[in-house]
Protein 1
Amino acid sequence: MKNSIKVERAKKNITQAELAKLVNVSRQTINAIELGKYNPSTVLALKMAEVFEQSVDSIFQLEDRDR
Amino acid sequence: MKTSYLFPNRFKKIGWVIFILGALLGILYLIFGVNSDIKMFDANVFAVITDKRWADGITFFKVVDNNILDEIAGVLLIIGAIFIAFSKEKSEDEFISKIRLESLVKATYVNYAILLFAIIFVYDWMFFWVIVFNMFTTLILFVIFFKRALYKSNKQLKNEE
């Protein structure tokens, strides 16, 4: 799964730490998600989408290797 | 989703105090206590099952005399290690839980790999001592692997800045 969180963060001009606080997780979690090392739970994905005022599937997309 | 089955974060410090105390008593036991040299720890204890007197065979529900230094050390080590291992991190979340699970699986594998090796290659009283240490090694290995994984993900943060 790939995601555009880094881009969305840049658009909104918020840091990893600020996003972490908004969705109530650690900075490590945001960082790991951005690096593609961790797939967030559905709840966390929804919360992040809410912060960016987007739908989940516009931020998170399946890759070929997921299929 | 809340992580269940974990102690509050403050138990971690308490755990370290208990564990270090247990480790000191454990070392004391290894140096002096094996031959029950420290008389202040001699006590009458209630045994659910014992074979203290070989001639009597196995007996149940009996009060026997025993040097309780190793019992105290063992109890403190296990309680301390459990608190250290299973207290929440300051920022316990789903990613930390994943690291926690991975570390626990790894620790279990490594621990049993060591035990398998010992079963095949270690004999007599030395095997007894392997089992003694094996009572604590799963938890200790878990703490080491977990801390290392947390440290790594923290270090990655520093690189991102």
Protein 2
Amino acid sequence: MKNVTELREQLSQVFTDLRNGAVKHSDAAELANLAGKMINSAKVQLEYYALIKETPSINFLKSEDRRTK
Amino acid sequence: MPYKDLKKRRDCAKKSNKRYWEKNKETINAKARERYHLNKPPPKPKIKKPLQTREEKRAYQREYYAKNREKLLEKTKAWHAKHGKQWREENKERLKEWRKEYQAKNREKINQQSKEWAKKNFDKNPEEVRKTRRLKKKEYKAKDPKRYNEMSRRWNHKSQKKMVTELKDCYVRRLLCKHGVVIDLSAKYIPQDLVEAKRLEIKIRRMVNEKRN
């Protein structure tokens, strides 16, 4: 997972698998926990940029679609 | 529609006869002369029977209206242009009573119509719709503040519940802004992709909790 879009895709796949019963709920919980950590780390970076009053340039938040544009 | 009062009926008939006479003087005289030469009795006048039952009257009114719709509309328009303002000022209280009665009778219908109108016209003229909403809110608040407060509390509670269950953008953004390590972020700093990732995470957490229970 290099950026948010990939994380989203992964999470949506986990969600559908969990609904179908292909993934155990304990595994899904672990994955969700991990995703939460990643989101929180991105949030901390955003807070930092907001504090120093700069426009954030975080690679994790830059999706491939935007890069191509 | 023929008058119930005989005197009025007679007066009306006289007037219309006079008008008819003035219009068709020559033809009537010619016919009378013809009848005189042929030694014929004069024709019997056609007398309309007064309408007795309510249904008869309604049927007559409908028929008359269908025939003379445009003429009648023009007439009423002209009357309103001439006397409408004065009449409204004179009958202010009566009009209020009528309006109240109508609103009490057709409350649901009126509410539905206004909702439909707002839905239709919001895209066309959102400012006007917002303005009317604001005015109605003010009116309602001034009328019964206790009830207004109660209703607004209920509405807020309902909308909050909906926001949480449906994981709306504003709710997820609020969650992300809360409990910051350095500062509490404002919602504008958070990109939409992050919001969607957070939403998916919450969805998974909720489903896991459901399955555990």
